[in-house]
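**User:**
My hope is that you can spare some time for a protein that puzzles me. This is the protein in question:
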Amino acid sequence: MNCSSQLLRNQCVWVIVALCLSVVCQPLAAQSQQGKPGDTASTESQNADSSNSTDNARTSSNEPSHTANSCDVSQLRICINDFLSDQAGIWTSPLRLHPQDAIWLLPLAGATAVSLNYDVQTLQQVSTSPNRIRLSNDLSNAGAYGAIGIAGATYLVGKLTHNETARETGVLSLEAIADSSLVTEILKLTTNRERPYVGTGQGRFWPDGTNSYTTNGSFPSEHATIIWAFSHVVADETLGHPWLHLGLYAVAAGVSAARVTSRNHFPSDVIVGSAIGYLVGGYVYRQHSNSYDNTFFKSGFTISPVYDAPTRSYGMGVTIDPNALRSVSLRQLWPKTFLISGGR
């Protein structure tokens, strides 16, 4: 594809963005339609009171049984097979798109399009104070690299103490980080976008044409990808702890915002990176967790992009469902929605 002219380059960018969003949105939309591979027959055979029996089973045993097919350091072949299977499922997901997937794809595509349009203007409003840039950079690095360290430590603690929930949480967190990071790195190479501190600060795609590529591209943000993949897996593995979940997502949002305030990324880089991490994290959990049951599982949080055209403000809406979270104290909050927003 010849992207030498600015018009053609922009067209190439939108094609890649559309592909990216369709790749990461389809697995999440499929959450309500399918369970883990091989579970279809058992799901279809369940009767009307299956949710009650599942509830009782989960209440009576907090620790899911460890299966021989679980990824583990001692089972590297299984881990590699899981990783390759995940990549095949993620990259071929556009072939399985359905009309109802537009419920996720269109809002995310709209938020990305708006952000791309105002990327440079938004970044011009960000402070250039060296101290603030350094602090934001340190915070974002601590969040992303800390997530990797915590995931590894969680696995080791679970392994040594024979705590299957901790072991699985650590393994799946690392698996989700690896899956989403590879997707992000491929998109970085494909879009070849300049960082905000490079060149004229316009965030150009393919600034030197298609003959030069870099592994340090700006689009999308890998820090955002890592922290959101980690947060989603941990939240899914710890049902019944709503404040932990809220804290995880608040930290993830903070790390993502810090990538902009540190002037390492444009807002659209962070939006797409966050979406990849969040959706791939959910995909990995549904595909490989021993505790996942698609007849029982319902996330207590609904996250959706928010944009206010008159004020050119963008943000993220987090809706808490107290019934799904099984928390009596949260019933007083329903149906409040918490917004984390920003803008010009």
About this structure: Confidence is low (pLDDT under 50) at residues 1-68, 295-299, 325-344. The longest strand covers residues 301-308.
